[in-house]
Every structure is written in structure tokens, then in C-alpha cells.
Here is the input.
Amino acid sequence: MATNANIGYGIGPRGNVVHRGFLKTFKSYQSQLVSFVSQGSAKRPSTIHCMGHSLGGALANLNACMLRDAGFNVCLYTIGAPRVGIVSYAQDITKQIAPGQIRRIANPCDPVPMVPLFPYMHASRGSSELLIRHGEKVGIDAHLLHSGYSKMAYSSSWSDFSPMPHGLSQYTDLSREFAKLGGGGMFNAKLLDLVGKLTEQVLRSMGYAYLVTVQGGLSLAVTAADLLSEVLVKAANASKLLAEDVFTIVNSMLDFLGRAPISGTALTIQTLHWILDQFSTEMAGRAQQAMLKAQRG
Here is the structure.
């Protein structure tokens, strides 16, 4: 998909840094959208609802940002949408639009909301983020409206969906959950969630809480690979307990990818970088395939 392949940064509405591919599509119709909603004061809408699924959700984000800046009252609703802008964009739009007027629905088995990588971030937070569960494996069908989000057709209220968990699990709880899963976690969404939570715990222990983005499955493990590799190697060398946590993270990620675990030898930045790159490439590829399939209907 050209929009997704056109990676990099661009300057979007309100001077925010956003995904260049999404911005290119947005600019292709921006003037028509402005003309349509500005047909004279008598026809000016009292509220504009910006909503969309997949790529449509990314564009709904940019539409909402532009229209709110133009003085319109805006509601933003997205389903299975990718991240659109960097952290400053996400923070700006959540200040622009009232919390009760933003809803982001994600499926923990859907790879699309997990990309692009940090520093991209979802423009939603807290109670505005909702989960809809479908199956156990991360895959393309979990992104589609007729499968991964089919429950929405039978829902009449936001309360029908589960709030996205933001509390960090206790260490003992995480250990117990990892033990329950055991091996065979290839593309398992639960394993992905546990890895994200344990990664968050390690980062906080090392004083890197600013890297924590509590938004959806494994948002941490798709943080920029070079930065995360360096931090995790430091953690592995800091104490025996943290070293065990890092190896749990690494081998769980390899298990998720269907690869053999590594032994307890010295862990290097290069090894970690390779593993994270493999993971990021796999997830980005699945997300792109899912978005293409969604566009085909």
C-alpha cells in the first residue's frame, strides 16, 4: 500500500509531526473537506464526527485535528487504526478534543494498532481506549470489520467494550501468567501482552519510565530497536533478577516469532537489536497485509 510504504515524517495540522504517508493522502482531499464544511454560516455543522477503520481511522485523526483547529466541535472515533503522529501530536490532539469525545477501539490480536514504531503514539488515553477481543493469535483477520471487529455490529453502547488495561501487573502475577502459557506461544496475543508488561517493569526499574507508552499490546517492544536494545542490555548487566527478566522478554519474543530460544550467555546490543528488528519487521508486514485486505473489502 503506497500510503503505508511512504514512511517518514511530515508536518501535519497545527504544525505537528505525523506519518508522511498518511499526510500525503490527507492533503489530497484537504481543500475539498474545508470547502464542504465551510459552506456558509447557515450550514455550519454544530458537531463533526470523524470516524474510520484502519487507514480511515488514521485519516479521521488528521481530519479531527484540522477541523478542531478551525473552530469546529469535533468527536473522534477510530477502529483498528494505526498510530498517526509522534508523541507531541498525540498530546496536542488530546488537549484539543475533550476526553469524552474521543474513542479508540482496538483488538489485541490486530497488528495494525501496534504500528508505526515509537515515537509514534495513539491520540487517545485512559478511559477513551476500549478493547474488543477476537481469538488468541495476532493475525490479519483480527483487523477486519467482519471478523476482528464483528461484535460492533451488535453493540449499542461504549459500555459493551472492555476498557484498555493500563495498570502494571505485579511481578508475581506476571511470573504466574508466563508459567501458565509455557511454550508454544507463536503469535499468541496474551504472550505479547505479557512481554509488554514485563518490558515496562524493566524500563521503570532502570529509570526509563519516559519510554513507557501504555497503549495497546506490546507498545513497548516496538519502541525504536536501537534505543530499547541498549536499555535492555544495561538492565541485563545491572542485576541477576533484571537479567532473568530480560531473557524472559527476549525468549518470549522469539517464541512469539516461532524461533528457538537463546541460551543464558552474555546478551549483546547487536543480538537484541536483531531480535527486535525481526519482531518489528514481522509486525509491520502483518499490519500492511491487514490494511491492504481491509481496503479490498
